[in-house]
Automatic annotation (TrEMBL), chains A, B:
E.C. designation(s): 1.1.1.3
Gene3D superfamilies: 3.30.70.260, Dihydrodipicolinate Reductase, domain 2, NAD(P)-binding Rossmann-like Domain
Organism from which the protein derives: Propionivibrio dicarboxylicus
UniProt keyword Ribonucleoprotein, yes or no: no
Name of protein: Homoserine dehydrogenase
Superkingdom of source: Bacteria
Domain ACT: 355-431
Residues reported to bind NADP(+): L9, G10, I11, G12, T13, V14, G15, G16
GO MF annotations in UniProt: homoserine dehydrogenase activity; metal ion binding; NADP binding
Length: 436, 436
């Protein structure tokens, strides 16, 4: 059967991985897809690199726009990244009737609605398995595997850099700054780590998963995002003593009033499987009303794991390109006319339980003052312990776990607590999830 | 759009779950599938039960053959089980141009090749997500999510009954018989638990996964199967002391000489995520050459988790039924003309490492005799410890972990060891896997 012709935009890490996996496994992939899938043209500004990676096996150009308008190209793989030129190229490819495969989470988080609308109108597919959790087929699982379910929530470790850092902080008891430098040295973190450590990359991925889980428009701009830069090793240690691990989770929940969409460090029970996902690995836990909790685990980044997802999309597109567009898997899992615009809840309205660490003077009545304030805000305490001052100190740490409450209640209570003269440091507040 | 009409055969646990989930989530499922999916007729010998479960919402019959020949039925769900009448009904449905969705692992393990051939000839789909690991979308992950990969091996906890029993044996230190009775009392094991505890159910599921992973014919009849009935609590304890857990794993590996296809209790490192899958939960670990190891976890049985998979298949069939058969996902993941007949390796040829427990007289020279025999068979020792005899006893336990060797070597060595006069009990041998 006639080969599918693919134009590849960007021959960096993932592009190189895609090229080499597609070549190495071409026989097996053809046996699955029913026809060869061939990269016939590669566009990259760095033609020398492109020549080195491809070994002259296909046409090269430094003009990506010539690829997205090339009548001989069936599918365009966009691996340029960012949301400037990538957006233009993807829209131009769609306009020219090309199917698109992309790993670009930032682009879809920012411009997904526009891109999916354009693809829908043109009757082409935009596939994006590689945009979330690398090689883990999580988009397929959510969009096709759990179609029977009313999905209730998703919680994911979807950024390998931060999970690596948190694992090292816990295992070695080291502060964030030290571990970040180590991660940079080992190549787990970039020179400018902002996107990863501030939770933005996780929020990009989360907002895509949230949309396909709930049949909602992509709502990245309304996500609440908090990274791990302010997290202290001492809280990781206290959490562990209480039977919890701290993970940077992307959490999205369907509530009666709207959708929660938030990324932040989170205490989760150590005995949960996802709490034991360590190092740079990713995992997504999805709860459906029929299936219960399911978990998907694997490598969330890297050349070949990401290439695995890119190529799975190529095979899917190859299989579906002749079917009528109405019967294809919809971009956002729900039919375009059934996608709704559920409100995203502000953090103040989120209901969860909390970990508090208070630094107080070690004298009588302190605990009574604090628990009185919590009671006044309808916050009840689930567990508590006090770390007595060391020899020569006169300040103690009080660690509390609360039952569920609205975030605005806990914040009001903390403001009152911080105003007490016996409270000598800023109270640390972390969110907790039971993930049941 | 016109509804898809579904005929349901068997309204037991999973049938009832399918009926109620499809009803409860019909709005959300329609928003995904693009058209309603309706169970229009139910066949069951027990008409009273059928009436109670369906509440008169659809036509009932006690003649399943009338459903598979009904011109108004688009899709038949087979939930009768077994491979007698179920095989006849599925083949008759295919003959009549119906698509089939089934949860029947025994049927597909025994007659999958015949059934898929018939479906292929007729241009209809036989979908079977529910046949393996209940609600976990593992068939979809293997067949569509990992298409870029040369899959190297799969290892799965794919029987909830035995995983529940092993978890209880480890946590409570109880023997198999006692825990089995408890599992039966709690409904985790059937009155006749043979299929589960002897590993046959796991082998059914494994042989289906093996076929779609490697593009091989379904080869259940050549699987090597060993259950957990002879497993002793003391070995679970020793394994734990050495940093391992014992799980009943279904393992299939692609080797240069053929395919390993085996179910048996297996020591795996406690720190692996899959070692921490407890109770009746299922998990499948799949290793691809590009993606690395990925894990899929969830409920492997029960009314609604299994219904989740059945309905996901209904949605898939609804989406794909208008597409040309050549472009659908092939039944066995590979195109029919690309499915091969790789040899299944006998256990004697399997290469793995081993846990040995020897009962010996506590006197000088014993260890020298044993290690000499192992060395003569080219088996090297990775770790060893000796449990000294208790007060008043004169026999000691020696526990050894070996490096990798062929099973026929270890068996020959054990025969020689058992012949030593200082060895007073039958040597226990368990297989180990590093799962890396």
């Amino acid at each position: 059967m006639k080969a599918m012709n693919v134009g590849l935009l960007g021959i960096g890490t993932v592009g190189g991985g895609t090229f080499s996996v597609l070549k190495r496994n071409s026989e097996e992939i053809t046996r699955r897809a029913g026809r060869p899938i061939e990269i016939t043209v590669v566009a990259d500004k760095n033609l020398e690199l492109a020549r080195k990676v491809t070994g002259g096996a296909c046409r090269l150009t430094d003009d990506a726009f010539s690829v997205v308008t090339d009548p001989d190209v069936d599918i365009v793989i966009e691996l340029i990244g960012g949301y400037g030129i990538a957006r233009e190229l993807v829209l131009k490819a769609i306009e020219n009737g090309k199917h698109v495969v992309t790993a670009n989470k930032a682009l879809l988080a920012k411009h997904g609605n526009e891109i999916f609308d354009a693809a829908q109108k043109k009757g082409v597919m935009v596939a994006f398995e590689a945009a979330v959790a690398g090689g883990i087929p999580i988009i397929k699982a959510l969009r096709e595997g759990l179609t029977a379910n009313r999905i209730e929530w998703i919680a994911g470790i979807i950024n390998g850099t931060t999970n690596f850092i948190l694992t090292e902080m816990r295992e070695k008891g080291l502060p964030f700054d030290v571990v970040l430098k180590e991660a940079q040295r080992l190549g787990y973190a970039e020179a400018d780590p902002t996107f990863d450590v501030e939770g933005i990359d996780a929020a990009h991925k989360l907002s895509i998963m949230s949309a396909i889980a709930f049949g909602n428009r992509v709502s990245f701009d309304q996500a609440s995002v908090e990274g791990i830069t302010k997290l202290e090793a001492v809280d990781i240690k206290y959490a562990e003593q209480l039977g919890y691990r701290i993970k940077l989770l992307g959490i999205t929940k369907r509530m009666p009033e709207g959708v929660e969409l938030r990324v932040h460090p989170t205490l989760i029970p150590s005995k949960r499987l996802i709490a034991n996902v360590e190092g740079a690995m990713n995992a997504v836990l999805a709860k459906g009303d029929a299936v219960g909790a399911t978990l998907y685990y694997g490598k969330g980044a890297g050349a070949e794991p990401t290439a695995s997802a890119v190529i799975a999309d190529l095979v899917d597109v190859t299989r579906m390109h002749t079917s009528d567009p109405e019967n294809r898997v919809p971009h956002l899992a729900f039919q375009p006319d059934a996608v709704v615009d559920l409100p995203i809840l502000p953090l103040a309205e989120v209901v969860t339980s909390y970990y508090l660490r208070l630094r107080v003077e070690d004298k009588p009545g302190v605990l009574a003052d604090i628990t009185r304030i919590l009671a006044d805000h309808q916050i009840s305490i689930d567990a508590m312990f006090q770390r007595e001052p060391a020899e020569g100190e006169d300040q103690a740490d009080i660690i509390m776990l609360t039952h569920q409450t609205k975030e605005k209640n806990i914040d009001a209570a903390i403001a009152s607590i911080n105003a007490l003269s016996v409270v000598t440091g800023k109270t640390i507040r972390l969110r907790m999830e039971s993930l049941l």
